[in-house]
Specification:
27 strands; alpha+beta; 28 helices; single chain
């Protein structure tokens, strides 16, 4: 075979291998230029010695490791093999199959491809080498080229091996860095997605603004809190969406966060598109750029509207009257203190009007608490309408109100408002189908004349109010220092009255009623007196109004009813001719549902027959709740007890009301009897009343008869019964007993 062909068959594969290692091109050309190839390898046996020597010389001059298998597939290698693998390989001269099969089985597929005539490559193959006596892992690149004989058959293999540990390490490091970078980027992407998901789906509002306060980022919840879209928020300033009253608070907190970096909590109101507001708890914190400069403000917001409204509602309940919605005593004192401080600064005055409704308890008891509450609401609204903007109207008790008049230049300025209040309160109120009228008594104290403390001013106005009430009500009085002595006396009276019942200081006096027809005593009125240990005998007008105000009238009424029935029964047991005993019932007792039960139990306890008891109720007391009074009186009448209307003619009752009541007797009030027979108006009224009673089959009694002229007039008008000083003053039971035993001392007057 031509040597050039042999060169092509043997040297070219070597050149390709060496080219991979960076040397093959130059060494391949040198081998072709020199005639070193020897004889053809077309027979089995050894490669030509010259070829072996030449190849060995060339290969040993490089730093790469070269392996070769000869025609008999025996293994040999160059000198570079030793430092690369760490020792001479024991496979030298061994058959090829033993080498790759026993030592490098992973190369088997590559070698088989080379034996089949293919040039193959194996990059970065990992081997365990021994260097310096220690195992070491290294990486190599293998190239395999087939060596052919003249017949073109593969008779050997040539392999070039180069260590790539450094390159692999670098590549691995780069790959690790790249993988780490990719992993970090993926983690960052996932973190961003996770963060965006958290922000988007967070149950709290999250927003980011620049240091000028403009929205740059908002999550869905923040939009929901303010009731606005993301497009409506982005680019707008936070302060523009803040309640005007809270803008200063927001600005101060925002500036503080930007200047100091301090995180803050603030509660403020945000504005919604419909003009309503939402209470928001905001946590403000600062984020900085890489240079440490303020960059953004982060807001974490929670809707606290419900909590805040509950707090405000609780505060409102603590400072306002639930019925009238007016300020209560707590808020009143706060307002008074503020008014006093303002007056000190301005040099003005403050007037305090203390109001107490007259006869409110009567309305409340007769019409019921619901109607009483309705009356208070109406009065509260009227009081508001009488005051100026900036004044305070408060309810501090059941039927007690206070008005604070701010910034008065003159004390007399309070008079006009007080008069307006009196007129407004006195206007009738429609309740349960009835026109009900009440009045008020007003006490007035003035800052600084009467004190500089809210408590002192209230006490002074309260004292003046009692003075107005003692004047008959429906008027006002300014406080004066001497009122304190009278107030103290009243307070002592209240205290002693509470003790008087238990001590038995309440006694009954009796006054007879005489029949002008039968010419005898037919009834005795029981009249209560207070045998005061210091003040002596006190008449009802001196303590009954106080008893009604402090809630003792029911207890006094029970005591009087029991004593009167016991005494009448005692007289009967002593053999006296039976007469009716008449007992006065207060309007408050009349509206109590237990009055019929009380009457029945007293009659049973004393053994007095019901026909010998008569209850007197005032006309004015009946008119407050005619329906309730009618029902109560009917139950008492069904027991057989007599019913009379006292003070008839003073309560403005209509005939329609009169005919509905289960009554037996009309008592003409003494004010109409006093000037008989000389006052023509009184003559007309008394004459008409007697005629009315007879037309309704009612007994008629004239009270307050003091003169014979009055007596003769009444007898001429056919008045059935009379009562008054002409027939005797009220006397204790012992003296009344003597009158009953000797009636002739008073009866001759009735015979005229």
């Amino acid at each position: 075979m031509d040597q050039n062909v042999l060169a092509t068959e043997i040297v070219e594969p070597f050149s390709r291998s060496l080219s991979f290692l960076g040397h093959g091109g130059e060494m391949g050309r040198a081998m072709r230029e020199k005639d070193w190839l020897g004889s053809p390898l077309d027979e089995p046996g050894q490669w030509p010695q010259e070829l072996k020597s030449t190849i060995a010389l060339m290969l040993n001059s490089g730093h790469s490791m070269f392996l070769a298998w000869g025609p008999e597939l025996t293994f040999f290698y160059n000198d570079a093999y030793i430092p690369l693998l760490g020792s001479k390989h024991p496979a030298l001269g061994k058959p090829f199959q033993d080498v790759w099969h026993d030592i490098w089985p992973d190369i088997e597929p590559i070698v088989l491809d080379a034996l089949a005539g293919k040039s193959t490559w194996l990059e970065d193959f990992r081997l365990l080498t021994e260097r310096n006596g220690y195992p070491e892992e290294a990486f190599f690149t293998f190239s395999y080229s087939p060596v052919r004989n003249s017949q073109g058959e593969v008779c050997g293999l040539f392999s070039a091996v180069n260590e790539t540990t450094g390159k692999v390490d670098a590549m691995n490091r780069r790959r690790a860095v790249e993988e780490e970078l990719v992993q970090s980027q993926e983690q960052l992407r996932q973190s961003n997605e996770y963060l965006n998901t958290i922000i988007s789906q967070a149950s709290v509002g999250i927003a980011q603004t620049d240091i000028e306060g403009r929205f740059m980022l908002v999550n869905d919840r923040y939009c929901e809190i303010l009731g606005r879209s993301r497009a409506d928020l982005l680019g707008r300033k936070v302060k523009d969406l803040t309640h005007p009253e809270d803008q200063l608070l927001h600005a101060e907190a925002f500036d503080r966060v930007v200047r100091s970096g301090e995180a803050l909590f603030i509660e403020k109101r945000g504005l919604r598109p419909d003009g309503s507001h939402v209470w928001v708890n905001n946590h403000l914190s600062l984020s900085r750029d890489a240079d440490g400069n303020p960059q953004h403000v982060i807001k974490v917001s929670i809707d606290i509207t419900e909590r805040k409204e509950n707090e405000l509602h609780i505060k409102y309940l603590a400072t306002h009257d639930p019925l009238t919605k007016l300020p209560n005593r707590t808020l009143l004192k706060e307002r008074m203190l503020h008014s006093i401080q303002a007056a000190q600064y301005l040099g003005t005055k403050v007037a305090l009007l203390f109001l107490d409704l007259n006869r409110f308890k009567m309305v409340n008891d007769s019409l019921g608490h619901d109607q009483g509450d309705q009356l208070l609401k109406v009065i509260a609204e009227r009081l508001r309408s009488c005051t100026r903007e900036g004044d305070t109207t408060a309810r501090i008790g059941g039927d007690e109100f206070v008005i604070v008049l701010d910034a008065l230049e003159f004390v007399s300025d309070a008079i006009g408002i007080a008069e307006e209040v009196l007129a407004s309160v006195a206007e009738p109120v429609r309740l349960a189908g009835h026109d009900v009228s009440v009045s008020t008594s007003i006490g007035i104290s003035v800052y600084p004349r009467d004190g500089s403390d809210p408590t002192i001013l209230l006490k002074s106005a309260d004292t003046a109010m009692y003075q107005a009430k003692e004047m008959g009500g429906g008027t006002f009085r300014f406080y004066s220092p001497d009122m304190n002595a009278r107030l103290l006396e009243r307070l002592l009276t209240e205290s002693r009255l509470r003790e008087a019942i238990g001590r038995g200081e309440l006694v009954l006096y009796y006054q007879p009623r005489v029949s002008l027809v039968k010419e005898r005593i037919v009834a005795i009125e029981a009249l209560v007196r207070w045998d005061h240990p210091e003040n002596g005998l006190m008449l009802p007008d001196d303590f009954i109004p106080i008893a009604e105000e402090i809630g003792l009238i029911e207890e006094i009424g029970r005591t009087v009813l029991m004593q009167a029935c016991e005494q009448n029964k005692r007289w009967q047991q002593q053999g006296q001719d039976p007469v009716r005993v008449s007992v006065n019932i207060s309007p408050r007792q009349l509206t109590q549902g237990d009055l019929p039960y009380l009457v029945r139990s007293v009659l049973e306890a004393t053994g007095l027959a019901p026909q010998w008891l008569e209850l007197e109720v005032t006309e004015s007391g009946l008119m407050h709740n005619i329906t309730a009074a009618q029902e109560t009186l009917q139950q008492i009448r069904d027991l057989g007890v007599g019913i009379s209307i006292d003070d008839f003619g003073t309560g403005y009752s209509s005939l329609n009301h009169l005919k509905r009541l289960p009554i037996d007797t009309l008592k003409i009030d003494k004010t109409f009897v006093r000037d008989l027979p000389f006052d023509s108006d009184d003559v007309s009224i008394v004459t008409a009343t007697i005629a009315l009673a007879k037309s309704m089959n009612l007994r008629v009694v004239a009270e307050g008869v003091r003169s014979v002229e009055q007596l003769y007039f009444l007898k001429d008008r056919e008045c059935e019964e009379v009562q008054g000083y002409l027939f005797g003053l009220p006397v204790p039971a012992e003296q009344m007993e003597g009158v009953l035993m000797h009636p002739d001392s008073i009866i001759p007057l009735a015979r005229k």
